Amino acid sequence: MPQLARRMGRAKPSAIMQVADKAKRLKAEGRDIISFSIGVPNFLPGEHVYAAAREALEKDSGQYGSNRGSDALLDAFLAHIEQIGLTGYGRVNCATGIGAKHIIYNLAEALLDEGDTITFPVPYWTSYLDIAEIVNAKVDLLPCPASQDYKMTPAQLDAALAKKPKVFLFNNPSNPTGMVYTKAEVTALADVLMKYPDTWIITDDIYNRMLFDGLEYTNFVMARPELHDRVIFIDSLSKTYGMPGWRVGFMAGPESVAQAVAVLNSNHITNIPEIVSAAAIAALCGPQDVPTQKNAEFQAKRDQVMAVMDAIPGIVCPRPQGAFYVFPDISAYFGKSHGDTLVSNDVDFCNMLLETKGVACVPGSAFGEPRALRISYTCPTPQLAPGLARIQEFCAELK
Predict the structure, then answer these.
(1) I need a labelling partner for 122 at 20 to 30 A (CA). Which of 9, 171, 203, 346 fits?
(2) Mean pLDDT, rounded, for 162-170
């Protein structure tokens, strides 16, 4: 029988989706399940987005579109990023994709030859490692534990870049931790990046409008404009606008990189569908009341989650200031038992929490940090307090 390509031996299914699927199965069996697992915003965009899609459907041309993205969509994206301070880009610097994950995959193909090194901090979003392994790149991980608020230091970055990686990948605000680098912290890292001109810089900043406590978004090129020709900024409609299923991702960066992504699109997807493009333009250019309201709600939910995390003995949880995640270090409970079952690690903890309390969380090892777990607090508000209470009860029962 013919064999699959060797790269398929390096490809892994999403650990997050595996947890979410198990929670769905248990719920279908009649279990009372509260899911803190999958990172979806759990709200829908404003009516103007649907109106734009319906109008586009009525006027559908039925034709292929641009590999890069329509001019109207690119212009909407450019106006959108100018609002957060990213200027000096034109259509030639941009490209679209079927979600931010697709953009990242295209960038991996465009920038990394087999054996090249990509470096990024731990904890990381699961797909970073998975995509790097599929393209057979080497990965240099930079551990950033809870003791340093899950943030990379300039010294860590300096040591990593001294090894001459081809790509440095940065995520701010962070999935899975929700941590946000301040302007001063971004500037300090940008100063290090200035020393290493042969490394590409990818900033996966899809949560850039989900900031709390009055923080403002900062990018490396805003701190050091000289980095403009090396930084590739990634954005998405999924989180900010409640549109994960619409699958619209963007990049802005050097013209050569944008062109490379467009070329890969011509081989992978051809173009974003016309109706989806119309909805995306409406989301970017239309009323912003829904994302503004939801951001305020997420900040309130963050406060609710942190009040419980701070009250559980042994848990260490740096306070996130963005996205919609908390990432508590639960390692104080390793070696304890729930009834007759020993909890040896994060996977045991999450499995037992789901089986005994009906609460689904993702083990931290999926993000490279096995001492923790991820809580996505985007569930319906009435479920949040009961779910948190179940976690608190579970921890109290561990002996």
Answers:
(1) 9
(2) 98
For 299, the enclosing helix (H) or strand (E) is helix 289-311
Q: Could you tell me the pLDDT band of residue 15, with boundaries at 50, 70 and 90?
A: low
pLDDT (tens digit, 9 = 90+) per residue, 302-324? 999 999 999 999 999 999 999 99
- Residues 6 or more apart whose Cβ sits within 8 Å of residue 297: 381
Tokens in use for 390?
């179940």
Paired residues of 134 in beta bridges? none
Q: Under a CB-based contact definition with an 8 Å cutoff, are residues 374 and 350 in contact?
A: no
Cα gap 256→61, rounded to integer Å: 30
Could you give the CA distance from residue 117 to residue 163 in angstroms, rounded to a whole number? 9
Helix%, strand%, coil% for the chain, nearest 5 = 45, 15, 40
Q: What is the mean pLDDT of residues 333-345?
A: 95
Percentage of residues in the chain with pLDDT exceeding 70? 99
User: Is 149 within 8 Å of 321 (Cβ atoms)?
Assistant: no
CA atoms within 13 A on the CB side of 255: 5
Q: Show the domains of the chain with their CATH numbers.
A: 6-44+290-397 (3.90.1150.10), 47-285 (3.40.640.10)
